Amino acid sequence: MAAPAALRFDGRVALVTGAGNGLGRQYALMFASRGAAVVVNDLGGDLNGGGKSTKAADIVVDEIRSKGGNAVANYDSVENGARLVQTALENFGRIDIIVNNAGILRDNLFARTSDTDWDLVHRVHSRGAFQVTRAAWPHMKKQKYGRIIMTSSSAGIYGNIGQASYSTAKLGLVGLSYTLSDEGIKYNINCNAIAPFAASRMMTPVVPDEVVAQLKPDYVAPVVLYLCHESCDETGSLFEVGAGWIAKLKWSRSHGAVVRKKGVPMLPEDVRDNWNKITDFTNFTFPENFQRPYLVLNEIESDTDTSA
Ligand code: NAD
């Protein structure tokens, strides 16, 4: 039997934000090596969001071209998302794939988080992804095709000391991804979120070399490429990815308990007395959409009818 065809992106246009370094660079190189025309966006700033340079994007574009690939640079901040999408349209005539990857850190303990740090982190991660994706959305809708990645973080999913602003923005991107998945489904626009871990300048420089070798961006990029391929139907999902390990995350919900009784006020003591049942995950479920809590109302009616 013939081996399945390699995943190619010929004729597709991919925009990778923050592609001058780390993970984004690897995504851009891999998309180009598989036939996509790539917009390499990077404003060339430092880790904290300061500075600006064309160098970071230019080096990646040169590397792609030297290998026979097709790429152009864009040096705008993701906050000016329309300009990034314009670069794709002007140079390649379409936009098929967006990898919202650009990011900065402004880590500090919560009590020491300044307004400036909070706002800057949100402007780059949340507002940036919003601006870029909104600019591309009508084009994807019209062509009935789009693949979008939001970059979350385990800091957002689980929380992390010193990363209040970053974790808020990063979990927000998961919510955005879920909503875009719902809104995009009838236009063949898929949107997924990843929480990567990889050795980059974002990681503390004291990580030993042998760990760095296990955490190459090369072990994250193939997941992004697969999720962005036309053959992949996955949408509205969140994956933890790193070191060659890939896992899908879902919300889980305890069976819960109806604690109110017909004809009497619901009291804090009702909550206390049912706490073990409320938090018991023996019969857990994986809630997948927004309507489910409301469907539970039917069960509540029948419970309360018998418990008065
Ligand atoms: P990195 O610092 O190596 O690369 C990020 C790039 O984004 C830089 O080249 C930077 O110049 C660019 N950038 C920053 N602000 C920008 C802006 N406003 N507009 C355009 N470009 C901008 O970081 P990385 O480790 O490769 O991280 C990539 C993404 O993955 C980030 O969103 C990060 O939060 C996320 N992430 C990374 C890790 C990890 O382990 N490396 C873990 C969790 C999440």
Commentary on this structure:
42% of the residues lie in helices and 14% in strands. The chain is built from 11 helices and 8 strands. The chain has helices at residues 22-33, 55-66, 81-92, 115-143, 154-158, 164-184, 209-214, 221-227, 268-273, 275-278, 292-307; strands at 13-16, 37-41, 70-74, 97-100, 146-151, 189-196, 238-242, 245-249. The longest helix is centred in the middle third of the chain and has 29 residues, at 115-143. The chain binds nicotinamide-adenine-dinucleotide (NAD). The site of nicotinamide-adenine-dinucleotide has 33 residues, from helix 1 and helix 4.
Write out key terms for the chains shown.
308 residues; binds nicotinamide-adenine-dinucleotide; disordered C terminus; alpha/beta
Structural class: alpha/beta
The N- to C-terminal Cα distance equals: 66 Å
Average pLDDT works out at: 93
Number of helices, counting only DSSP H or I runs of 4 residues or more: 11
Which range does the strand content fall in? 5-15%
| Series of secondary-structure elements, N-terminal to C-terminal | EHEHEHEHEHHEHHEEHHH
Dominant shape: globular
Main β sheet profile: 8 strands, mixed
Q: Tell me how many strands there are.
A: 8
Radius of gyration: 22 Å
- Give the spatial strand order of the biggest sheet: 3-2-1-4-5-6-7-8
